[in-house]
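User: Predict the complex.
Assistant: Input components as received:
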Amino acid sequence: MALKRLGAIVAMAVAVVAGAASAQTKQIVLGYELPLSGDSAHYGEAFRNAAEIGLADFKAAGGLPGADIVIRYEDSKNDAREARNIAQMFADDKSIIGVLGDFSSTVSMAAAEIYAKSGVPQLSQTASHPDFVKISKWQFRNITTQSYEGPFNAEWMREKGHTKVAVVAIQNDWGLSAASSFADAFKAKGGAISSIEYFNPGTRDFRSILTKINRTKPDAIYLCMFYEEGASFLQQRQQLNVAAAVFGASSLYNDQLIALAGPAVDGLMLSSNFVPTNPDPKVQAFVNAYNTKYGAIPNQFAAQAYDAVGIMLTALKKTGVNATRDSLRDALAQTKDYPGITGQTTFDPETREPVKTVVRMMVSNGKFSVVP
Amino acid sequence: MLDIYFVQQIINGLSIGLVYALMAIGFTLIFGVLNVVNFAHGEVYTVGAFVGLLLITWVAPPLLVVVLAALAVGAVTGVGLERIAFKPFRRFRDEASLRSRAMREATLLSSLAASIVAREVMTLVFGAHMQTIPQAYLLQRPIAIGPLSITNGDVVIFGASLAMLAALQFMLFRTRIGLSIRAVSNSPMGARFVGIDTDRAIIATFAIGSMLGAAAGILVGLYDGTITPQMGFAPGIKAFVAMVMGGLSSIPGAVICALILGVAESVTTDFLASGWKDLVAYAFLIVTLVFFPQGIFGVGRERA
Amino acid sequence: MNAPERAGLLAPPVLKGLLAVIVFVVLPGTLLTIGGGYLFQIATTALIFVILAASLNLVTGTTGLLSLGHAGFYGIGAYTAALLSTQLGLPFLVTLPLAGLSAGIIGVLVALPTMRLVSIYFAVATLGIGEMIYVTLLNWTDFTHGPMGIRGIPSIELFGWRASSSLDEYLVVATTAVISLWALSRLTHSYYGNALRAVREDDQCANAMGLNVVRLKIEAFGISCFFAGIAGALLAHTGKFISPDQFRFSESINILAMVVVGGLGSLPGTVIGVLLLIILPEALRGAGDFRMIAVGSIMFLSILLLPKGLLGEASALDLLRRQFGEAWKSVPGSNVGWR
């Protein structure tokens, strides 16, 4: 693994040298700030892998004639202090005309203040904070916003006849907005929310929450959490024999969830905008490339990063070789019906929020499958 | 009428507390008895969990063998840690530095540095994501007692805590090496005067404490289903708190306080919200310390 | 300390003037010529941590109380400044001192019951308080916005002059840092500072000499928290976005590491410790995935080779002996020959 990485570094160095050697092609650099060490390193790893594939695909498809595009990765440790430093470093480097990342909203927003000031277009694959794109006209993101996904799941649960639902959400910006947008929609559709329980990031023991929820006897539980917590939660739910049905947000969608929690996941219903078994050739090409290169099935986070890189490169192609930060931003803002593997993406010209489509999924017999 | 959910909450709390207790036992030996602050204990715990996991995925032996392997690896890790992060700070053998015990306590930061390196190396090798554990080994099978529910893991961890506690008390109070550990703990200077090999006693303490830490790591990893390079940090802080509440040198005291902490967290979740449980746990710590400045079970110590 | 008067170039006033010239002219000048907003960013962060580490140094280095919850007070300062400026629209000149005051007052309130604790019991109490502050910032969503953090904090403004560029921000932070350092240095090198050192060296003896030990400790802790709050306000106004996870336990440990690597009780040492631990991770970016391993290894080597810190006044070891030492003597009377 380390060798492979060393290989990648060498390859990158060679690429840089080669780029410098051929004087005719102009080098265009995109910055990517992401966690490569610390607690969230595995997310950053997936982003980097997906971005490498995205860039290779772009070049294979003709790339941008006359320009050599390089992505420069910097480790932010998912730490706001580091992210500010990187943001300033990227902003100073005039060869960098666009930036991808960071991972969590907190860190992305700390960096965003600097990108906003220096006028660098920033496209995050995951920052979900409702205010992220409100910081300035330079911020974009490629995620399913909860204002769409929450009502989508609420509708589904009402169709299934659930009237009383408990919500369990992680205490971060994403969890807060996911829980509230779901709860509002569910109440608007005539359902009742028996309680909303927030837990601090890092919690692994949900038995107290489960016992508390069980007291109110809800029909169903809606989970706004990531797969790590989801695995613990579902196992402990089985252990405490809580009967309520379980629904979840797309963040739970990860093969690791089933690997970690096994049969306890069966029956989980969730929404997702990326399905690796999707027969769409684009999706299959990405899944195969990822699997051959890194020996794993990509998850939703990798897919979002792949699309984010794709959106950025497509905008870059539109602006051409003489792209500047301003022209790239304008091109990004005009992104319309980008045919990504996480669905079609259009940036709303006013709010720069992506508009996406999601599907219903269910776990049965240890497999995710799309519910028609 | 007795609220069945509330009883279940108490049970949940006790089982959370048992996890802290299991970790606190190994901690207390090194921190409390030997009085060395070892920030890397959490990493020993993680190493134990990873070695156990590797063994499970490669050989799939019975659980007891896994625990024994973790114990062995823990002992080796402990000795290695002592050699790298603690021994170099005991380089002076003159009376003054031994008496001040100064060198040994520089290890607060050397162990912190060692723990950063160990954690990052593990992240590099295994990745930061949660490791997949074969279902058969997970200690999560429910055991129903009427309307209440516990898991086989609760039983295993309870048994392991009892066994560790008993073994440790026996070792400390009935064997020669235990005697020398207690002697060094009381006064390393005095121990040297009466001919005790203090280095050997310290290495033994590290070996035993780390053995217990590593075994706790794999058991808790299987129980929680969470094995990551970062897993040692959060329960480590709670175990540390439990140890201090219990009064540093009292291992049974640390166990009881760990249980109190667990129940406090669980009951807080029931009455307030899960997010506030840490607040209550730490408030509990501070109230305890204000009223029992030496910890609940601490013996009256001299002020320096 | 009581070093003999040095003549010529190394005389203290000359040295101080030289340092001032470096901080206010040479460094920003150099940074401007290499055109580094990135370097300004690092320099500003480093200066904020200089205030933090210097304030922790007062408690841990000079007074000898190991505090593991300093980031909490830093957070209180940052949140006070952020809330006052975004909710009430107060200017920087008001939010800065208020941030310090609120952190200082909470520090004193916290210190009142816990200051009678000795050694590691105090350290763990501060750890608990730091975590309590974090949990409160995270969960009191109505007041602190919880995990959403606070965004759009106005930049520094003084009498109508707005610090808009990196250079302006750097200069304001540098001025605040220099004033704070000067205040802390005057404090530690006064009779009052000697009293604090007496408390560190032997609090029973200090008590017998007529010093009110508990009061001194509470005051020192309050002052230290005041400066931590100031640092927090600077972070809020320069970073413009704050959220609870910037003030966690690991940050407290970071600050402590800076103080100890630099040398407990020595202000110049603290400054060097900060520079080392802020610049090192940035300088090692080239190491890629091995970066944090390298940082840990260098930290380890510096402790191994310089156990007293780079410029320690009290050796780090002495302090830790005091923190953890007495717990050794669990048998009463066994220390008769000692003191």
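Residues 213-239 of chain C form the longest helix (27 residues).
Let me know if you want any component modeled separately.
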